[in-house]
Specification:
heterodimer, A: 364 residues, mainly alpha, two-stranded antiparallel sheet, 69% helix, 1% strand, B: 171 residues, Four Helix Bundle (Hemerythrin (Met), subunit A), 2 domains, 6 helices, extended
Chain lengths: 364, 171
């Protein structure tokens, strides 16, 4: 079966690399230029994505609450976020007099860098990945734990009791929910037998894990989505920035572009978490194939892999946004109970089930 | 000069600079952050050597675990925002002598030691190999130390829970 359309993201990247090799020759310099190009592309992609997500969040919120949402700036209010960004650019970046200046300026950078580094092993399309590291999933869970340090740093250096309380809540929340995230990731790793992102995607060519692994996989998918909503501090787990209690949590004292960086990292985290859920449970860039319906499968194959990946990711982002407008915020004790008394024991039992399934070969 | 050597020296500067700043900083929270940089540098060194699994474990355990724990204990300490008193001159001189003589001794031993490549069979540091070695009882298997350490960690966890547990007082 020959595909008619041969333009793909991986072939474009390959052509650029070959052209650079011809034009320059020195492999080290070509490698360096490759890295710079990749970094610039990723930055532009993530910033545009955050613009889109900011707009999407408002529109989803409006849809859930039966109102219109932004509709003045640009078509359907799509340029509202640009106006907001310009406003943030012109705002004065205040630094509290009593703050620890060095850490105060460092904190937003660490948060953004940590969330951008997690994008490295994501498979955006077929054969289109920044760094297919052999420990993909472990790398993701390791690097995403760096962000918490930035949040703690921001809360501490602001010299403000609300910031400090917000940071401590955030720390307790992220450290505890990381456990169930890790355990639900491990259930996929047990099935695949590899931590590498490309292996995980390839293992789903005959069916996505959420279908192949039936009930235990569905449980770990739900646990992953719930726990990662808590991990990225989004409602209903947004105790860290609960306006009514803490004015703004760890970023109370931040304004202007430094505040924008926290916002940016929040949206990047939302994207990363959804992308990982899509890769591990929903087959990444793999098209949807249903059993022996040959013609249906062929039609699905014509949809580019990047669109499959982004579509699945957007679906999970929509679900997480849906949570925000459906559930009321949890109290701190409810939050910790949910993790330690429900999610963690369930995911531990679930891991045993998954292991049993993998040994006995009960999955499809 | 090779690029990998430049990267090595950058990482080394990060590790040593972070360590020195962590010790000399008078603000305790900053000291924790500099320690963090030093530990990340060590993880970078593992990445540089292609020991990706060990590098990730380094980040998970030290950055995600230990440094967060240290920061939490700083948060819960009284007056931790104030500068610490700078140490007495005599004391700092003595510490400098002790540290530099220790460093000199270590360097002397390292420079005199003749390194030769290990003659044992080399195993690729992939996750699969590490797992197999860890749980095998054959030659080069590490099952016994692995299990002993597991029991030690379990005992430590149970101990921590026993200390932290609240017994209900009679009303």
């Amino acid at each position: 079966m020959k595909t008619v359309l041969t333009i793909s993201l991986s072939s474009i990247a390959g052509h650029i690399h070959q052209w650079l090799e011809k034009a320059i020759g020195n492999p080290t310099i070509v490698y360096l230029i490759d890295m710079v190009l990749v970094a610039v592309c990723l930055l532009v992609f993530l910033v545009l994505l955050c613009f889109f997500l900011g707009w999407m969040e408002r529109k989803v919120a409006a849809f859930m609450q039966i109102r219109l949402g932004p509709n003045r700036v640009g078509p359907k209010g799509s340029m509202q976020i640009v106006a907001d960004t310009v406003k943030l650019l012109f705002k004065e970046g205040l630094t509290p007099a009593a703050s620890d200046k060095f850490l105060f300026h460092l904190a937003p950078m660490i948060v953004v860098i940590a969330s951008m580094m997690v994008c490295a092993p994501l498979a955006f399309a077929k054969d289109f990945q920044i760094f297919d590291i052999s420990i993909g999933v472990l790398y993701v869970s390791a690097v995403s734990s760096l962000g918490i340090i930035g949040i703690l740093m921001a809360g501490w250096s602001s010299y403000n009791k609300y910031s400090l309380l917000g940071a401590m809540r955030s720390g307790a929340q992220i450290v505890s929910y990381e456990l169930s995230i890790g355990l639900s990731l491990i259930s996929v790793v047990i099935m695949v037998g590899s931590l590498k992102m490309s292996d995980i995607v390839m293992s789903q060519s005959d069916g996505w894990w959420i279908w192949k692994g039936h009930i235990p996989m569905i449980i770990s998918f739900i646990i992953f989505v719930v726990a990662s909503t808590a991990e990225i501090n989004r409602a209903p787990f947004d105790l860290t920035e609960a306006e009514q209690e803490l004015t703004g949590g760890f970023h109370t004292e931040y304004s202007g572009m430094k505040f924008a960086m926290f916002l940016l990292s929040e949206y990047i985290n939302l994207f990363v978490v959804s992308a990982i859920a899509a890769t591990l449970f929903l087959g990444g860039w793999m098209p949807l194939h249903i059993g022996h319906l040959q013609s249906f499968n062929h039609i699905m194959d014509y949809i580019p892999s990047s669109i499959w990946f982004m579509g699945k990711t957007m679906f999970i982002i929509f679900i997480i946004m849906w949570f925000r407008w459906t559930f009321p915020r949890l109290r701190v004790d409810q939050l910790l109970n949910l993790e330690w008394k429900y999610l963690l024991p369930i995911s531990m039992v679930n891991i045993l089930l998954v292991t049993l399934m993998a040994i006995m070969g009960w999955h499809f | 000069m090779q690029a990998s050597i430049i990267i090595f020296y950058c990482l080394a500067a990060m590790i040593i600079g972070g360590a020195i700043l962590a010790v000399t900083s008078l603000k305790i929270f900053r000291a924790a952050v500099f320690l963090l940089f030093s530990l990340i540098g060590i993880a970078g060194l593992y990445f540089w050597m292609n020991y990706e699994f060990i590098a990730a474990v380094q980040i998970v355990v030290y950055v995600g675990g230990i440094v967060v724990l240290i920061i939490f204990s700083i948060f819960l300490t009284h007056h931790s925002g104030e500068d610490m008193k700078s140490p007495k001159l005599a004391r700092s001189i003595f510490v400098a002598i002790a540290a530099s003589s220790g460093f000199a001794l270590t360097m002397l031993l390292i420079l005199q030691h003749q390194f030769f490549a290990s003659s044992g069979n080399v195993v690729e540091p992939t996750v699969k190999n590490i797992g197999t070695q860890m749980l095998s009882t054959t030659e080069n298997g590490y099952l016994l130390p692995f299990e002993v350490i597991s029991i030690l960690l379990l005992a430590a966890m149970i101990g921590a829970i026993v200390i932290a547990i609240k017994t209900k007082t009679k009303a």
